[in-house]
């Protein structure tokens, strides 16, 4: 098992990529901490992990709230003694063209997708530094690399996450902490699955492989980067996008 006895915190773990990552980590022996806004939203992933014999803790955490993050991390350390892996997966969208975008929608996406990464990363990195090691994985996107129509706010955050990732890799490497990002392409999450067929076909057509990623495809990338197999990889952005060109 590639993550045996490791303690991994995954934000935004209620569904989609976060849920798949939590399950995949548990399959590889990690003790998994799942967080989301609203404990009820985590019931399904918690039950799935318990059914497979995994160890899991769940927390109601809004990543814009530092007190909630600190309380979760303190509780995890009290119970399990360490935090080895952080997956900053929590994120939201509030799409609109630039000329129509409301300032409030810009601000809330920045707060969750960018400042939320900073909040969780800073708090957890302090614990990792004390233990002389750890892995931080940040959720970027191909949108952060190439931009996307109607996503000024989202693209800004995902590009910003890349800058954070490379900066943290330089700062934290001397503490034994590796920091990388994953940039998913179009992925068949529950939200995407509800889109009209013509939109899904358009998204599939952008990939040379002619299909969308599954949440498990992205989870496998996180697993690799979290494992010792990636022990000499830091500051990188791994695009898992089926070769998409936007």
Automatic annotation (TrEMBL):
InterPro entries: 3oxo_ACP_reduc (IPR011284), KR_dom (IPR057326), NAD(P)-bd_dom_sf (IPR036291), Sc_DH/Rdtase_CS (IPR020904), SDR (IPR050259), SDR_fam (IPR002347). Gene3D superfamilies: NAD(P)-binding Rossmann-like Domain. Pathway: Lipid metabolism; fatty acid biosynthesis. Its EC number is 1.1.1.100. Residues 6-185 form the Ketoreductase domain. It catalyses: a (3R)-hydroxyacyl-[ACP] + NADP(+) = a 3-oxoacyl-[ACP] + NADPH + H(+). One of its GO terms (molecular function) is 3-oxoacyl-[acyl-carrier-protein] reductase (NADPH) activity. The keyword NADP applies. It comes from the Bacteria. Keywords: Fatty acid biosynthesis, Fatty acid metabolism, Lipid biosynthesis, Lipid metabolism, NADP, Oxidoreductase, Steroid metabolism. Homotetramer. Belongs to the short-chain dehydrogenases/reductases (SDR) family. Catalyzes the NADPH-dependent reduction of beta-ketoacyl-ACP substrates to beta-hydroxyacyl-ACP products, the first reductive step in the elongation cycle of fatty acid biosynthesis. This is 3-oxoacyl-[acyl-carrier-protein] reductase. It comes from Acetoanaerobium pronyense.
């Amino acid at each position: 098992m590639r993550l045996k006895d490791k303690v991994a915190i995954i934000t935004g773990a209620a569904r989609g990529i976060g849920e798949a990552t939590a399950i995949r980590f548990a399959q590889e022996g990690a003790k998994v901490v799942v967080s989301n806004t609203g404990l009820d939203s985590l019931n399904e992933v918690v039950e799935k992990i318990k059914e497979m014999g995994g160890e899991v803790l769940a927390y109601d955490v809004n990543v814009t709230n530092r007190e909630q993050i600190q309380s979760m991390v303190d509780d995890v350390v009290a119970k399990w003694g360490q935090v080895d892996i952080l997956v900053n997966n929590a994120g939201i969208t509030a799409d609109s063209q630039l000329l129509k975008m409301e300032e409030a929608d810009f601000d809330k996406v920045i707060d969750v997708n960018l400042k939320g990464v900073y909040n969780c990363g800073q708090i957890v990195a302090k614990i990792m530094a004390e233990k002389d090691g750890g892995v931080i994985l940040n959720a970027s996107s191909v949108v952060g690399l190439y931009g996307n129509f109607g996503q000024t706010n989202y693209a800004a955050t995902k590009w910003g996450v890349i800058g954070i990732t490379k900066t943290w890799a330089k700062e934290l490497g001397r503490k034994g902490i590796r920091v990388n990002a994953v940039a998913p392409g179009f992925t068949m999450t529950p939200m995407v699955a509800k889109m009209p067929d013509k939109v899904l076909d358009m998204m599939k057509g952008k990939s040379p492989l002619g299909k969308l990623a599954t949440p498990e495809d992205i989870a496998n990338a996180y697993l690799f980067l979290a494992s010792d197999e990636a022990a000499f990889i830091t500051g990188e952005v791994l695009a898992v996008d089926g070769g998409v060109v936007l």
